[in-house]
């Protein structure tokens, strides 16, 4: 049962990667065509996601064993620090700051360059898990993680001069995104565990906090510092590029922000961070794949080799659980004829 549960968690993590990769690809296209600023783009995604999470808890909360009010109230009494970890590290750092930095990066850079750097966050999450001794990653997981990182670095690497390294680049924004996400995922998992909060309530808290932070930012500093005008941008896209508005809502709001984040929270709650994060954050593979298939970016040997390493890393990471499942199925096939014979004799 434990092996089957681990395998299901791996599939959840891979589905998360597919949702995030697709969402990033279509979200970038929609923002570019619809002339939306990164802050308005991420606010649309977060707001729709929050509405869907609240709807999920309201309609299916009892069936899912999740209750927003009771869980938050219980967490406040038993583990305020656990609750604060979700709000501060996941809501503010990862969901607010991290997602804004990510949207800023994909709006100004190539998806196949920005995504691999931003999704280096498993390194930071796994590093924290090792430092805090929360987990003991196996040899297979570490090897798979390294192979995935090599692929990501190959895709995103570019020869820079000494002067370029010390000048502001969009790639550094992507790296900061990865740090925010890695730290947020680590402390978010710890917070849910300490406060006994279900993934459904945890992701709702994260999204609600992010929405508040983004709303405060856009009305306080949006027009003056970030060149973001919420009402003006929304009016323009609704009257001129309505289809792009729905693309953001569909792919970023529903697919990536709601479904992807929900799957991710279920996975990190039930699985080990050093297993889930490397699989979930292989999103650059899907983002790059869509960019190449769509003809937005060209195939190069460098990108193909990088994608090969990422796939190899995924296979290496999931191989132990897959092998165990095959053994279980083979054992079941051997035992089944014996059980049938015994049942026949009894009859």
Could you explain the architecture of this structure?
This protein is about 85% helix and about 0% strand. It has about 350 residues and is an all-alpha fold. It has one domain. The protein starts with a helix and ends with a helix. Residues about 1-5 and about 320-335 have low confidence and may be disordered.
Give the distance, in angstroms, between the N- and C-terminal Cα atoms: 30 Å
Low-confidence stretches: 1-6, 321-336
**Order of H and E elements:** HHHHHHHHHHHHHHHH
Count the strands? Answer: 0
Average pLDDT for all residues? 80
Radius of gyration: 22 Å
Number of domains: 1
What is the helix content?
Answer: over 70%
Strand content: under 5%
Largest sheet: none
Class from helix and strand fractions:
mainly alpha
Shape: globular
Number of helical segments with 4 or more residues: 16
SSE map:
Layout: H1 2-34, H2 38-64, H3 68-78, H4 80-108, H5 111-118, H6 121-131, H7 139-156, H8 162-165, H9 170-195, H10 199-220, H11 222-225, H12 230-240, H13 242-270, H14 273-280, H15 283-293, H16 301-346
Helix pairs in contact: 1-13, 1-14, 1-15, 1-16, 2-4, 2-10, 2-13, 4-9, 4-10, 5-7, 5-9, 5-15, 6-9, 6-14, 7-16, 10-13, 12-13
């Amino acid at each position: 049962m434990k092996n089957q549960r681990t395998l299901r968690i791996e599939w959840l993590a891979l589905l998360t990667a597919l949702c995030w990769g697709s969402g990033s690809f279509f979200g970038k296209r929609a923002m570019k065509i619809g002339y939306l600023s990164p802050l308005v783009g991420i606010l649309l995604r977060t707001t729709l996601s929050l509405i869907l999470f609240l709807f999920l808890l309201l309609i299916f909360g009892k069936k899912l064993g999740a209750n927003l009010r009771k869980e938050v109230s219980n967490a406040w009494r038993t583990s305020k620090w656990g609750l604060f970890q979700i709000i501060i590290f996941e809501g503010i750092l990862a969901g607010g700051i991290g997602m804004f930095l990510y949207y800023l990066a994909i709006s100004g850079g190539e998806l196949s360059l920005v995504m691999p750097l931003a999704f280096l966050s498993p390194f930071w999450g796994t590093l924290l898990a090792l430092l805090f001794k929360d987990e003991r990653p196996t040899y297979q997981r570490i090897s798979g993680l390294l192979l995935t990182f090599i692929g990501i670095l190959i895709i995103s690497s570019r020869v820079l001069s000494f002067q370029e390294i010390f000048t502001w680049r969009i790639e550094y924004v992507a790296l900061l995104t990865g740090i925010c996400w890695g730290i947020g995922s680590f402390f978010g998992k710890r917070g849910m565990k300490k406060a006994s909060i279900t993934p459904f309530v945890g992701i709702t808290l994260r999204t609600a906090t992010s929405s508040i932070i983004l709303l405060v930012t856009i009305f306080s500093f949006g027009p003056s510092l970030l060149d973001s005008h919420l009402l003006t941008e929304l009016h323009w896209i609704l009257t001129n590029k309505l289809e792009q508005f729905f693309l953001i809502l569909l792919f970023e709001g529903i697919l990536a922000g709601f479904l992807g984040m929900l799957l991710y929270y279920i996975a990190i709650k039930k699985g080990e961070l050093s297993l889930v994060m490397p699989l979930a954050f292989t999103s650059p593979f899907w983002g790059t794949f869509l960019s190449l298939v769509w003809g937005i970016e060209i195939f190069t040997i460098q990108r193909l080799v990088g994608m090969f390493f990422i796939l190899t890393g995924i296979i290496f990471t999931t191989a132990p659980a897959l092998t165990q499942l095959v053994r279980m199925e083979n054992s079941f096939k051997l035992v089944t004829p014996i059980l049938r014979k015994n049942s026949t004799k009894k009859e």
